[in-house]
Amino acid sequence: MQKNKHKLDEDPCNGMCSCGSEESIEKQPLWKQKKILIIFISLVVLGIGLYLEFFLKKDLFAQIAFFIVVLIAGYEIIKNALFSIFKLKFNMNVLMSLAAIGSFFIGHGEEGASVMFLFFIAEFLEEYASERAKKSIDSLLKITPETAVVLVEGKEKIKHVHEIKIGDIIVVKPGNRIALDGIVIKGISSVNQAPITGESMPVFKKIGDSVFAGTINEEGYLEIKVTKKSDQTIISRIAKFVETAQKKKSKTEIFVDKFAKYYTPIVILVAILTVIIPVFILGLSFQTWFYRALVLLVVSCPCAMAISTPVSIVSAITSAAKNGVLIKGGSYIEEIKKEKVIVFDKTGTLTEGKPEITDIIPLNNYSKNELLTITASIESKSNHPLAIPIINKAQTEKIKLVNVSEFKSITGKGLKGKVYGKQFYIGKKSFFTEMNISLPNKDIEKLENQGKTLVLISKNAHLIGIITLMDKLRDDSKETIKQIKDRGIITVMLTGDNKKVANAIAEKLGIDEVYSELLPENKAEIIDELLEKYKHVIMVGDGVNDAPALAKAHVGIAMGGNGSDIAIETADIVLMKDDLSKVVYLIDLSNKTMNVVRQNVTASILIKGSFAILALPGFIPLWLAVAVGDMGLSLGVILNALRIGRKKNE
Predict the structure, then answer these.
(1) Domain boundaries for CATH 2.70.150.10 within the chain
(2) Which end of the chain is less congested by CB atoms within 10 angstroms, N or C?
(3) CA-CA distance, 152 to 168, in Å (whole number)?
(4) What's the whole-model pTM score?
């Protein structure tokens, strides 16, 4: 899967517009900012100049006022234009400077001043609007406290987070934010994890549970053992992750960049011909056609089109981060909209990955308690995954385990041991078939068809009971699959389980296609087959066992387990909370984002194309070309893109 890497200071406009500025707005009130002061002074002087020219008819003084406006508002613009000319790069600063200066030569000083003034405002507004999206990164980091209360030899001491080491114990009282990632070693409380997972409800935390920097301790007193330094916390990694993702370009962005690269020289050539042909061939007015050429240059700037995609992608990425979804680059947002198939791993994705006992079926005069006592006692000697739910069930039922002698584990088959001096066997169906133990095959087949895993128990050669287990479906699995199918996308499930279990789960969820009894490498092969058949495929897995399949798919989405390191490192998109409904949110976010991109690009082409056509016969004055064709359109594109930021997982 191709991952595009770009320099952090890369200009999305190819140097052809103000939108590429990397300079941050000063962190002080707007009225104190230097740029606001420049706008205010320029507006006053421009107003004075217009009054002198049109009311007092003092043309000389008016031209001086207009020139002062150009110097004040255009100082940085003209300076940057000179540097660009020196490097033989004809960017928007050059075009605007030429337009403003050229206006004075043909007696339109008011137009030159208006052009420079409006362009300065355009730069300011674009920069300010763009910063709103970028500031979401800083806001993530600002929610983490700079200091924490540390226990040092039993006493509380305030330390800066950079001084706190892994293994230190920090104290977090009710209402305070947790400063560093760690594990609760004392106390219980509800913690608001919205900054990490996007979930609105607080999560109960007890001894042994993980907590994250930036989250809020709502109720109880907590002592937390620090597990990560301040620059390694999940929240700091999310911030870096989002910042990097914003720099990765989508295919649409790359296309627009290439388009602008060839488009700009063509526009300059057309502007030159606009002067040469009418003036030197047809003998028409130089002043008239030079002015129209200047208008054409200004209105043809590709700024709005160039920023239409990146500002939309940045808005989508930051919106997703606030909703507990980390996207590693704009290309994945674009790709999701194209997907025809979404493939799900079963265990840990569609299900919780925690088998639960569904039935205890005693036979041959044994009671449920007797059957559970024998089974749990023998299973307590085993480390098999199915032993845990059986032992947990015994504890829930307050059943005391009994002594087991002559215990033996038969790999891949089952267990045996003596309880109360009698021999018992526990295991799968094939284990008992090998021992020629008579089984109620019809009843067993019925249970297996329900997707249940069977644990058989016998006393010597006589079956005394069956315990069935089933991996619990996630609460939101069925509704998520339904919503995905409603959007016209095919759903596929991959699992290592047997065919009967897989089909039963798929039927409950309404999955379209099922592949069972798979190894991890088999899953990757299935993805290859699906790619060949459907071209565009998303894989959703747990980020660990499904790594080969996640890598093969166009987009790999990992269930993040509240920000597990392995998930963040391996997947293209990470769901920080194991919330499957976020997949539907991603589909809708992708559709909305790409619709906004299409709207912005279409509007840019239509408006600029119309203005360019109207500029040649002289219907568009220079100030209107800047105010509407450049500044107004660019600002409209940005504001439209910022609507994406309001997309929430509902």
Answers:
(1) 147-232
(2) C
(3) 8
(4) 0.67
Residue in the block written with tokens 């293994």: 167
User: Other C-beta atoms within 10 Å of 577: how many?
Assistant: 22
> In this structure, are residues 182 and 164 in contact, taking their beta carbons and an 8 Å threshold?
no
Residues 626 and 118 sit within 8 Å (Cβ to Cβ): yes
Per DSSP bridges, beta strands 555-559 and 573-575 are: parallel
- Beta carbons within 10 angstroms of residue 202's beta carbon: 17
295, exposed or middle or buried, with CB in 10 Å at 0-12, 13-18, 19+?
buried
Distance between CA atoms of residues 342 and 336, nearest Å: 10
CATH 3.40.1110.10 domain position(s) in the chain: 353-472
Q: Which of these CATH numbers, 3.40.1110.10, 3.20.20.150, 3.40.50.720, 1.10.10.10, describes 353-472?
A: 3.40.1110.10
Strand partners, 414: 410, 427
- What is d(CA 168, CA 597) in angstroms, rounded to the nearest whole number? 48
Q: Which of the following is catalytic: 257, 345, 471, 579?
A: 345
Instruction: Tell me if residue 443 is catalytic.
Output: no
| Alpha-carbon gap, residue 103 to 477, rounded angstroms | 65
Coil/strand/helix, residue 76 = helix
Q: What does the alpha-carbon distance between residue 333 and residue 178 come to, in Å, rounded to a whole number? A: 32
Dist CA 410 CA 432 (whole Å): 12
Which bin fits 377, alpha (ψ -120 to 50), beta or left (φ > 0)? alpha
Q: At which residue do the structure tokens 């999206």 appear?
A: 133
Q: Answer whether 495's CB lies under 8 Å from 348's CB.
A: no
CATH of domain 147-232: 2.70.150.10
Hunting for tokens 């989250």 — which residue is that? 215
Measured distance CA(161)–CA(148) in Å, rounded: 6
Residue 475 and residue 578 in contact, taking contact as beta carbons nearer than 8 Å: no
Do the Cβ atoms of 47 and 114 come closer than 8 Å?
A: no
Q: Encoding tokens for residue 214?
A: 């930036």
The residues, ordered by sequence, that sit 6+ positions from 360 with a Cβ below 8 Å of its Cβ are 368, 371, 372, 393, 465, 467
Which of 63, 43, 42, 44 has its CA nearest to residue 54? 63
In sequence order, the 6+-apart residues with CB closer than 8 A to the CB of 496 are 347, 516, 517, 518, 519
Query: Cα–Cα distance between 240 and 66 in angstroms, integer?
Result: 46
**Average pLDDT per consecutive 10 residues, the chain (650 residues; last block may be shorter):** 37 42 42 78 92 88 92 90 79 73 77 79 66 55 81 91 94 91 93 66 85 87 92 75 56 62 72 90 89 78 70 83 82 87 89 85 90 92 84 90 90 86 90 88 85 88 90 89 94 86 89 86 87 90 73 84 58 83 93 90 85 85 76 80 70
Report pLDDT for 564.
Answer: 54
